[in-house]
Amino acid sequence: MLAYIIRRLIQSIVVLLMVIVFSFSLPYFQPEGIYTPAYSVLGTHATHANILAWGAQYGLNHPFFVRLWNYIIALLHGNFGFSYKQGQSVYSIIATNVPRTVWLALSALLLTLVIAVPLGMIQAQRRNSVFDYAGTGVAFVLYAVPSFLLAFLLIQVFAFGILHLPSQAPTALAPWAMFTNPVAFILPVATLTLLGVAGISRFMRGAVLDVMVQDYVRTAKAKGCSARRVLWRHTFRNALGPIITLLGLAIPGLFGGALIVEDVFNYPGLGYQAYNGALNGDLPLVIGITLLVAVFTVLGNLAADLALGIVNPRIRIERSGK
Questions:
Q1: Where would I find the H helices in 145-269?
Q2: What is the pLDDT of residues 160-184, one digit of tens each?
Q3: What CATH number was assigned to the domain covering residues 94-280?
Q4: What pLDDT digit, counting tens, does each position of 270-319 carry?
Q5: Residue (of 176, 186, 242) closest to 209 by Cα position
Q6: What are phi and psi of 318, to 5 degrees?
Q7: Where are the domains of the chain?
Q8: Could you write out the DSSP letters of every residue in 182-198?
Q9: DSSP 8-state symbol, 45
Q10: Residue 169 and residue 258: Cα distance in Å, rounded?
Q11: 238-277: burial string, b at 16+ Cβ within 10 Å, e else
């Protein structure tokens, strides 16, 4: 198990380094290159001499690899750069907005699991029934609908139609405001939850169907075990492998969906900051948020791999034998 964990940690570090190099190189693809922030900071004073002086002040005149090394060292000390548009460090912006997005994404993820896992298992147990066909049809529709369109549809139906729910989340709020004013978060959480249920329920259904044809499941049925006992005791754990892997991959999807959902519902979270940063050309902020999402993604995949190794020890044995 220790060798399995070390191997996964090394792979995660390599992936993070690749993301850091790619993100650090993004400004070079801008029209003004790495001096792009100088134009927004200097404004009408952005002459050639002033731009070069500004770049020398912030070390932009150094070679690429020197700047990359300094950037990595700064990241290790928690320095994500400086947002010249907002006049504050990227770390302070991220620290303010991350808890809001985490609460939103975590709430949606928990609801997704509570709904999608039993739904997929029941569909597999009643495959080719009316319930299975109805669930499959709804899942396909939700899977195909873009997040912004689903958000607008929910607003139209439940904010301006049936229930008159708030069409936007409160602004300038504390991270724990979801618990003090939960009604305002029903539609944003519902949007992310429906998008997640569509995919995970289908994967759960397929995983359960694969397990139900195994010999040990047929043996349990032959011994007289009830269908419910076979489903939850013998099938559930062995069908969790693909779902655990999918959950690790679902983290970037949640943050990506939160980016759109936060903008639609005017929710001041990390996605909302990334959207405004992209519109305003705030490269340090966009790069900082990109790196943070990459860290969450790598950690999610690492946790999924470790959990998969615990749930299915055969993976560790097979990998160690290679």
A1: 147-154, 177-180, 186-212, 215-222, 227-229, 240-264
A2: 877 777 777 766 556 666 667 778 7
A3: 1.10.3720.10
A4: 877 888 887 777 788 888 888 888 887 787 777 777 766 666 555 554 44
A5: 242
A6: -65, -45
A7: 2-78, 94-280
A8: GGGGHHHHHHHHHHHHH
A9: G
A10: 13
A11: bbbbbbbbbbbebbbbbbebbbbbbbbbebbbbbbbbbbb
Identify the DSSP state of 156. Answer: I
User: Which token pair is 79?
Assistant: 């320095």
**Distance between CA atoms of residues 251 and 178, nearest Å:** 20
Q: Can you list the positions of beta strands (E) in 16-126?
A: 82-83, 88-89
- The structure tokens listed for 306 are 């470790």
Cβ atoms of residues 261 and 147 within 8 Å:
yes
Pairing of strands 82-83, 88-89: antiparallel
Nearest to 271 by CA among 151, 104, 83: 104
Token reading at 102: 């985490």
Name the token pair of 303. Answer: 């946790």
What the block records as the tokens of 241 is 């492998």
Rounded Cα distance, 81 and 289, in Å:
11
Cα separation, 261 vs 299, in Å, equals 23
